[in-house]
Amino acid sequence: MLILSLLLIVKADQYFTILSPNTLISEEKLQEIQFKIANFGYVPYGQKISGELEIAIPYNFCEHQNITKNFNNDISNSKILLVQKGYCSNYQKAINAQNFGYVMMVIVDDNSQEFIPGVTNNSEGNLDIQIPTIMIQKTQGDKLKDYLEQINHKTLYIQVLFPDFYQTDKVKYEYWFSSMDQKSYKFLRQFYTFHMQMKDSLEFTPHYTLGRCAQCAKSGFDRRDSLCLSGGRYCAADPDGDGPLDGQDAVREVVRQICIFKEDKIKWWNYVIKYSQQCLGSSISIANLCYQYVLELVKIDQKKIEKCYNDSFSNQNDELHENILLALEYKKHEELQIRVWPLLYINDIKYKGSLTVSGYKSNFDKGDQEIYDTSHFGPFQAICKSFTINSLPDVCQNRMVGYSDQDGDWYEYKQETNTWIVWVVVLTIMGILMICTLYLYKRLFIKKANEEINQQVNINLAQYYAMNEQERNLRN
Fold it and tell me: How far apart are CA 173 and CA 170, in angstroms?
């Protein structure tokens, strides 16, 4: 429930504005409404959402029965719901709002809960949410609530512009995950085909979540710990509870995967997907040995990886001695204050929203992968929107939802492009047909006219010769 309540501050290229009535537009406390974006659901980056704001009944919106007024789910009558924070998870409120046809949910903060770090980003349970959720301050939310509770109040219309990612010719993205967390690999499996189709336009770096043993630090990192390597400098959670694995196995897998990525980036993708399928299923207890099978399966030289692994430690004892690869990884981990995972950064901006999408199947052995609804595969859409228009890869042009102009107005990319092409083709064909028709008509007309003229001339000549012959006979 804590992670479902997690909301993160975003860039300043966003706004929440009141379109009507004028009494609220001129309200001083509502001039600048700051908002945070929920870390679940679909986030329409770079897009505007406008609609009528309604207050939830009841205000906490945790009930399933008799919780809304008569609702008209017409596109021209888009509704946005204002709800109170608390009493149930924000996820549950968003599901309720979506089921009643609302296009967005606005939560009024109560300033009573603080973010508690160190938990997993459970995006797996949030796949059913396809609407955005934002949170505003209590003072401003209460102003909107008081207005909506007035009898016979005028309709309240709002507009929200969601932030966009920086656009570049080559997009950089980084993915933070846990090496033995099965759910962390789902994004990689779903995005694999897209990455391969535009790999020349992407700069990808995988990163791994690591902890540190506080008690070990007090003793100078000179003690062994079943969850840690390097004397407690780098730790991971126990991946299988009471099973035979421990945190040391997870950290060792981190070192191996870093070495594989350094050796061959394409084979790293092949390895992690196969590793997640073969080694992290129901038999996770064999993961510390299964990696050898996967290395052989994807044709990675195991001796090179073992050498890289051993060379990365300052001495042969991985349980006590420093590791240069893990040191760099942990430094980056602390600079970004990674406390929730899995996590995605696109062009150095933290992505918010679900990392995976439902309705998905894949057949990795045959190279097939299909996402039924790429329009709601948030990371794919966000990465595509991070390209400049002139550098869009083909897969983005074919599958991205749309693009925004300088004013933030949203256009259907594929629809507009295809319509323009269709009209050009249709008009060109029509023009060619008209020219051909006119040419043929002209030729037929001229031929017919010539035939009639020749026929008339022949008739006149025949009559003339007949008259001359008749006059000659009369003289004789």
Answer: 10
Residue 145 pLDDT exceeds 60 = yes
- What tokens appear for 225 in the block? 């710990």
Where do the DSSP E strands lie in 47-163?
48-55, 79-84, 104-108, 119-120, 133-136, 157-161
CATH fold of the domain at 3-161:
Glucose Oxidase; domain 1 (3.50.30)
Whether 181 contacts 239, CB under 8 Å: yes
Sequence ranges of the domains in the chain:
3-161, 171-404, 409-468
Q: How confident is the model at residue 331 (pLDDT cuts 50, 70, 90)?
A: very high
Q: Are 143 and 27 in contact (CB under 8 A)?
A: yes
Q: Which three-class secondary structure string do you get for 291-339?
A: HHHHHHHCCCCHHHHHHHHHHCECCCCCCCCCEHHHHHHHHHHHHCCCC
Contacts with 260 (C-beta within 8 Å, 6 or more apart), sequence order: 267, 268, 271, 300, 305
Q: What are the tens digits of pLDDT across the range 83-121?
A: 999 888 888 899 999 999 999 999 999 874 433 333 344
Answer CATH for 171-404 from 3.40.50.10330, 3.40.50.2000, 3.40.718.10, 3.40.30.10: 3.40.30.10
